[in-house]
Amino acid sequence: MCKILKFPQFPTEFYSKELLEIKGVNFTPRHIDIISCLVNGEKHKRIGKLLSIEEGTVEAHKSKIRDRIGKISHEDIIPFIQKSGKIELIRRHYTRLLYKFEFEQELKKLHRLSEKKSYYYLIKPVLINNELQTNKNSFLSFLVDHLKIAGIKILNIHENPIQKKLESNFLYILTTDTLNQFRQDILDISQSDQYLADNIICLVQDMQITDEILKEISDINYIDFRNLENYFGSFVKILKRIYSEANLEMLLTLTNKDNDHNSIFYEQRAYSTLLKRIRFPTPIVTNHFSKKISGKKMYLLMGGGIFLGFYGLSMVLYNNKLENFLISNSQSIKSELTVPADNSYLNRPDLIAKIEENFKRLQDIQVIALVGVGGAGKTTIARQYARKESSPIIWEINAETRETLINSFENLAYTLAQTDQERKILKSFQEIKKLKEREEKFLLFVQEKLKSNANWFLIYDNIEKFSDVQKFFPYESTMWGKGKVIITTRDGHIKNNSHIHNTILVGELDDREKTDLFNKIIMNGERTQYLISQKNEQNKFLAYIPPFPLDITIAAHYLKATHVSYEKYLEYMKEYNQDFTLLQESVLKEVSEYTKTRFSIIILSLKKIIETNKEFTELLLLISLMDSQDIPRNLLDKYNKDIITDNLIFNLNKYSLITRQSSLNKILTFSIHRSTQEISLAYFINALNLKEDSPLLHKIGNVLEEYSADIVDKEDFISMKGLISHCETFLNHDYFLSTDIKSIISTELGGIYFHLSDYIKAQNILTNCQETLKHYHLYPQLAKSLIYLGNTLRKLGDYEKAKSCMENGIKVYEHHLPQEKFRLSWAFVQLANVYKALGKYKNAISLFEKGIQLQKKYFPQNYIFIAWSIGHLANVYWEFGHYIKAKQLFEESLKIYRTYLANNYIGTAWVYVHLGAVYRDLGLYNQAKELLHESLVFYKKEFPDNHMDIAGALGFLGNVYCDLKSYKKAEELINQSLEIYKHNVSQSHVYFAWAQANLANVYQKVGRYSEAKNLLTNSLTIYENNFGREHTETARILKQLGENYFLEGNLEKAESFLKEALDVYQRNNHPESYDCLEILASLYIKKSKEEKKKNNHIQSDHLYNKGISYLNESLRTIRKNFPKSSPHIKRIQEKLIKFGTIKKGQTTL
């Protein structure tokens, strides 16, 4: 006798932190289960059965809950929860518990199957199997318990040898720790002829397993458990693999509810129906009102209620008898609803369940529309559902055209005519010469017959235009009676029709459905097992077949009939020639009544779309040349008028050719299926006779170039990311694109990669297109590509090559494009940035001023460029150490942004960051902090949280908090900055080194000198590689490292690094030398004290005077470069007063 398993408790992963903490009180998961039941009015016995625990255990948990919330009575628990603001969260959890109970009841029914045939599975790898034995409250343990309830035996790795012989199937749990072992295990298995692919079920639950990792094992059929909300649906997928012949329709129906379990509808339904399913004894309900009613009145009320109940029941029975009488005296009328034979038929219970659910509404006439692209299986699903109905009249109406609709109605009328008299009436209708009058007579006849036979069922198949069928459509029960209607259509707009109550999308098949249908046809419905190598080959083939029943059916029957290889079939598909299409149609005619191939469906749809407006042709070609996913509609607007684009998208939706429409950061995009795009392109290549020199391809290339340039000029980073795939897809059509078009688009693509900080790709693309641009004298693109390449090399630290590229680009502008003043001014300021990086600040300033002068002269209203250029000029002055001038220029740039570019949050934020940095250097820490916080607000409006500009702002803000001695906050912000850089640049990049130096500064301040030294040593190496040893940027790291040695007590090394940094600053006339001088002054005074302790008074006095001299020099440097109010002046003066060099109140030496 088998052990009866208790239902397992949800593992901790199902309980959010928000659920487990209520009003500051922490609860266990089981407490939350109990609370959920109590809040929803459950008693001990019900709770025990629902949670599979004893009543005494329920009482014990209630006492613990009461103790935690500090209440005396159990009745206080519910008010506590009601006042917490989390009542809805608790109720949703209760709904999940009810759902879990129902799901487990269905699993118990499957246990009977294991009595006929044993199903043994071993958990692999060994590491996970061992963990399962020790951790009984884990997610994996929860899953295994459900498998056991369903009758599946899970073997222990340590079972005795006899039982281990049963070990032929594996549940492989894939985690980041077991990934490498998994690859090796699969390799070992695949090389063995003994093992079959179906023996292994791979489960993925580790959230660290990314989609990128899963792509590496795309040839393995895995089941995804990473999203716990889909747990039950994923679990059913395991059952489908194991119990392949079992009817799992009820479980699938429940799974559909599970995906919807947060909706109000399901919560209400769960409360009212699932409790009935549990079959608890009905409690006696008493309330304040019933207590007040006297015994006599209560009997009267009960008696009256019983009488009304019997009366109502008798009326229902009478009405049903009358209705059944009408039905029984009419011949059952049904269309011939053919569906594919069992060996070619794919059962889709999830869609059937959705139809069933939607038909539970209360309308007299219930209407459901099945919407999808041609060949998705809409008609088959409608017929499959209709064949299960027990309605007196089930009829399919061919609604593709008005003519087929009228014919279908006339056929229905003749079928409904039950007497000779009725048939004579219909014959008289045929003699009416006026078409409209004749149609109305037939319509009225059908309406009357349907009205007298309630609960009819109609299918309106393949509606193209609802206006054609509206007159013949049942929407008023007083005229048509009661019944159900299923519509099949490609028109995605039909959901907006007021007569349609529910729309169900008949979408793509998943990988399992594709494989099942394909193998059914190939093997004539018999199950077969493939070796892993065969299965992999089949999966690769099916990945290229459009995921719809039509396409899988054609492919399977074609291969079966012709015995061509997978590769040959895919080659035919790619060519889409007429002979292949005709042969596909012939194969299809042999096996079904459906004769349209995917090619003919798409081509016919395209032709109908183009018939509505000839201007659609070029736009459809443009779409065919882009990536099929997330096509920006602004690109189409650039090619033609907005209204034309609107009209085209409307028509694409009408034929269900658009698979998805979305809006990300106000960027509207749409997607089409890959096969639709491929067929469209093949059609247009032939129809438009496209060749390399086609003016149409040049026009599309030019529009794509202009659109890309606009996106870059606007610094629209979100659009740039989306545009990459479209430019790359366009360039992949090299067999009919001319070399010059490819180089033009490559220039824009290289520029996009530069702006998105992917400098290696940008360098490769821009380098490769140089010669072509020169050869074809494409000077605008050549000059632009040289400037982009120069900028890329600057970012990669190759400043001399960057300078050469930009100078060459400027020569192209000056010699060949003198009219391009805007681009020339842009080139000047980009070259200025290179000179700034080389430390040649005067050259940089000169070039910035030259670029700004050109802009103000020719484009005085190009505020975005002028504000940007002035801001970057200010940045040069800042790095040059001219803080006052930098502050003035940053404030001028900020004024332009605020006055003319109020919505340019990115530009404003950039100025805020750098002006904040200037304020920090001037010692104005609170003003700096305020600006930097503002910059983050603006950046986060425009950028994702891991954007590099956000990292920069966080780093600067962390430095300010460090200056303000808020070291914990400083460390937190700088670590955030460092994490963002880790995900965006290599750990040898100067940005990463800058962030490390910032963190080292915090460590220094809190005495963590060893950690600070390690970070600074690494940063110094990176700065040297990028700037050289004698650059002012490197000097900052040398100064910081020297200060760290000083604080650590290593005075000799400190002096060496500080003197080297001071030498670099003084040779560059950089004001930051004041900081080196101040630290060196402290160092010499400390040395003086040490010499004094040794009684070396002469050396002590010498060092002391040297320290005071350095302090004085530091003060002179500050006064020369900083405002009179600078706190640096006050700090140095206080030190000099302390050492008695100047008197208190004295401001000069």
UniProtKB/TrEMBL annotation:
<dbReference type="InterPro" id="IPR036388">
    <property type="entry name" value="WH-like_DNA-bd_sf"/>
</dbReference>
<feature type="domain" description="NB-ARC">
    <location>
        <begin position="352"/>
        <end position="525"/>
    </location>
</feature>
<dbReference type="InterPro" id="IPR000792">
    <property type="entry name" value="Tscrpt_reg_LuxR_C"/>
</dbReference>
<keyword id="KW-0802">TPR repeat</keyword>
<dbReference type="Pfam" id="PF00931">
    <property type="entry name" value="NB-ARC"/>
</dbReference>
<dbReference type="InterPro" id="IPR019734">
    <property type="entry name" value="TPR_rpt"/>
</dbReference>
<keyword id="KW-0812">Transmembrane</keyword>
<dbReference type="GO" id="GO:0043531">
    <property type="term" value="F:ADP binding"/>
</dbReference>
<feature type="repeat" description="TPR">
    <location>
        <begin position="951"/>
        <end position="984"/>
    </location>
</feature>
<keyword id="KW-1133">Transmembrane helix</keyword>
<feature type="repeat" description="TPR">
    <location>
        <begin position="909"/>
        <end position="942"/>
    </location>
</feature>
<dbReference type="InterPro" id="IPR027417">
    <property type="entry name" value="P-loop_NTPase"/>
</dbReference>
<feature type="repeat" description="TPR">
    <location>
        <begin position="783"/>
        <end position="816"/>
    </location>
</feature>
<protein>
    <submittedName>
        <fullName>Tetratricopeptide repeat protein</fullName>
    </submittedName>
</protein>
<feature type="repeat" description="TPR">
    <location>
        <begin position="993"/>
        <end position="1026"/>
    </location>
</feature>
<feature type="repeat" description="TPR">
    <location>
        <begin position="1035"/>
        <end position="1068"/>
    </location>
</feature>
<keyword id="KW-0472">Membrane</keyword>
<dbReference type="GO" id="GO:0003677">
    <property type="term" value="F:DNA binding"/>
</dbReference>
<dbReference type="InterPro" id="IPR011990">
    <property type="entry name" value="TPR-like_helical_dom_sf"/>
</dbReference>
<keyword id="KW-0677">Repeat</keyword>
<feature type="domain" description="HTH luxR-type">
    <location>
        <begin position="26"/>
        <end position="71"/>
    </location>
</feature>
<dbReference type="InterPro" id="IPR016032">
    <property type="entry name" value="Sig_transdc_resp-reg_C-effctor"/>
</dbReference>
<dbReference type="GO" id="GO:0006355">
    <property type="term" value="P:regulation of DNA-templated transcription"/>
</dbReference>
<feature type="transmembrane region" description="Helical">
    <location>
        <begin position="298"/>
        <end position="318"/>
    </location>
</feature>
<dbReference type="InterPro" id="IPR002182">
    <property type="entry name" value="NB-ARC"/>
</dbReference>
<dbReference type="Pfam" id="PF00196">
    <property type="entry name" value="GerE"/>
</dbReference>
<dbReference type="Pfam" id="PF13424">
    <property type="entry name" value="TPR_12"/>
</dbReference>
<feature type="repeat" description="TPR">
    <location>
        <begin position="825"/>
        <end position="858"/>
    </location>
</feature>
